[in-house]
Amino acid sequence: MKHTISLLLENKPGVLSRVAGLFSGRGFNIESLSVAETLDPNVSRMTILTTGNDKILEQITKQLNKLINVIKVIDYKSNQFVGRELALIKVTVTEETRSEVLSIIDIFRGKVVDVSSESYTVEITGDENKMQAILDLFRPMGIKDIAKTGCAALTRGSKIKSSKGTKPKK
User: What integer pLDDT is reported at residue 163 of this predicted model?
Assistant: First the structure.
């Protein structure tokens, strides 16, 4: 089962390495990772997509809460959240497929960001299902290259809901 977890972290050197080390040292896989500063330049938000059962997630959460530079751990499993990824997809085009590719881009509310005689580079944002759907449609035409970001996520509504045992901001 996939889980999305966000961490609020002190924005200091080595923090990303410690979090990644926690995952690898315990045999947990990070499927995607996204990190950026928040409104406070001293705090970063890291969003991690991982796979495991509830027991594994509980173990991960407890270990993350023990890290010194972790301010808050937010488990989106029990909360409603908005999550989005960004993908740049270079898809092969021919005279025969140009209009079909443009139609697919329009349907998925994407944007052509680069054009050559043999390919379009498409920018698309959405959840994991939307990304997979457009890739499935482009695959028969030929995908030359792809670059995807990790998931960025926030809880719905006005309050941040955190998991039990989070540390207060220092």
Answer: 39
135 or 24, which is more confident? Answer: 135
- Regarding the domain delimited by 82-148, which CATH topology (the fold level of the hierarchy) does it fall under? Alpha-Beta Plaits (3.30.70)
CATH class of 2-81: alpha beta
Alpha-carbon gap, residue 14 to 131, rounded angstroms: 31
Angle, helices 54-66/15-25, rounded to nearest 10 degrees: 140
Ordered by start, the domain boundaries in the chain are 2-81, 82-148
Q: What is the pLDDT of residues 124-167, one digit of tens each?
A: 999 989 999 999 999 999 999 999 998 998 888 876 544 334 44
The candidate with the shortest Cα–Cα distance to 34, out of 88, 109, 70, 84, is 84
Determine the Cα–Cα distance for residues 101 and 108; give it in Å rounded to an integer.
Answer: 11
